[in-house]
Structure formats: structure tokens, C-alpha cells
Amino acid sequence: MLIWKGPKTFRKRQHSLQWTGQLTELQQQAADEILESVKAGRCHLISAVCGAGKTELLFQSVHYALEKGLRVCIAAPRTDVVLELFPRFQRVFPQTVIHAYYGGAPKQNGYAQLILATTHQLYRFEQAFDVMFIDEADAFPYSFDETLARAVKKAKTAKASTYFITATSSQSLIKEFDHCSFIPKRYHNKPLPVPRFSSLWGYEKSL
């Protein structure tokens, strides 16, 4: 087996963060909490409903890690998530070398400090990442395949912390984390609609 070991760390330099959006109060609180966990090197769970703007919560933490010379990975179970995130992070961090790894990905030049990858692609890495984000941590196949969790553990350095991002966190997942950020509202501050039961008995009369 051949193993290539790249540089241990990257030189600290300026990474341009070009995002002109504005976070809501809840988003900013969660983003600050994530940043504090990244600075402290502790694991963190981000539990936010669909449409809460979870990706935007990561920008300042990723920016901090990059400028500290740390190598960052954002992994997701599905290829479509990686393809959707890749151009967004390229726009936000235009001066950063970013690679996207998924089945059938084209060859990419340079040595990337920020990696976006499906969780299956993490098999190819060993002790490569100082900061590890797992997007949609509750989704198939990551939540059902223990080998993917082991791949994540192998891909990050011994001191690296893991940050889980999910819209449907289970109680068992929440219990694994001492530090958790929760956003129950979408970015426009309107709550998700709550389903209500409506019997269909006698629906013919209603029609």
C-alpha cells in the first residue's frame, strides 16, 4: 500500500471571506457557539430545521480555521449535497484552494486546504484534517453504516474535533454532545408548519 503524506500544516495567510449576507439573531448565536467550539477544539452538534441556513453558520468557523493554517473537511452522505455546496464555498472563499471529492469527480489541481467530500471518499484519507464537519449526520448511508464513522475517525487527526450538522437530530445523537446549538426557525424567522390530524370520515359530504 502506498501512502502520500502532505505537509503537516499550511502557512498562515489571509483567506478572503466574501459573503454579504446577514445572519438572524438565532443564526448568529449558533455561529458564535460553533466558532467558540472550534477555537476550544471541542465537538459540537448543530441541530437546525430545514431552511434554517445551516451552511451559512459555518462560514466564520471555516474562515477562522483556514487562517490558522488548519485543514478543513466538510463531508456529506450524498453527492448532490457536495455538488451544491462546492460552488457556494468557492464564491465565499475565492482565494482558497478547495477540492470536491465524490464518485466520478474530475481531477483537481493543487493541494487543497478545504475539502468537500462524500463520506465514502474519506476512506482515502488518513490523519489529514484538523477540523471535520459532517453535514446531514442523520442521513443514509452515514447513519446506518458504521464503517463510514470509522472512515471519519481515520481521516481526521488525533486532536481534531468533529462537528455534526443535522435537521433531524435524535435523542441518542444529542446525548453524545456536551455542546449543542439549536435553531427551531427558518432564516425568515417563521416556524415550520406543525401537521395536524384531520379525519377523512365522511369526506364525500365535505366534497
How would the blueprint of this fold be written?
Layout: H1 25-40, E1 44-48, H2 54-67, E2 72-76, H3 79-92, E3 98-101, E4 114-118, E5 129-135, H4 146-155, E6 156-166, H5 171-175, E7 180-183, H6 203-206
Parallel strand pairs: 1-6, 1-7, 2-4, 2-5, 3-4, 5-6
Structure characteristics:
single chain; 207 residues; alpha/beta; 7 strands; 20% strand
Rg on CA atoms, Å? 19 Å
Order of strands across the biggest sheet? 3-4-2-5-6-1-7
N/C terminus separation: 69 Å
Strand/helix succession: HEHEHEEEHEHEH
Uncertain regions spanning at least 5 consecutive residues:
none
Instruction: Kindly estimate the percentage of residues that lie in beta strands according to DSSP.
Output: 15-25%
Q: Which class of secondary structure composition applies to the elements?
A: alpha/beta
Mean pLDDT: 86
Main sheet: strands, sense, barrel: 7 strands, parallel
**β-strand number:** 7
Which oligomeric state applies?
Answer: single chain
Count of helical stretches = 6
Helix content: 25-40%
Cα shape: globular
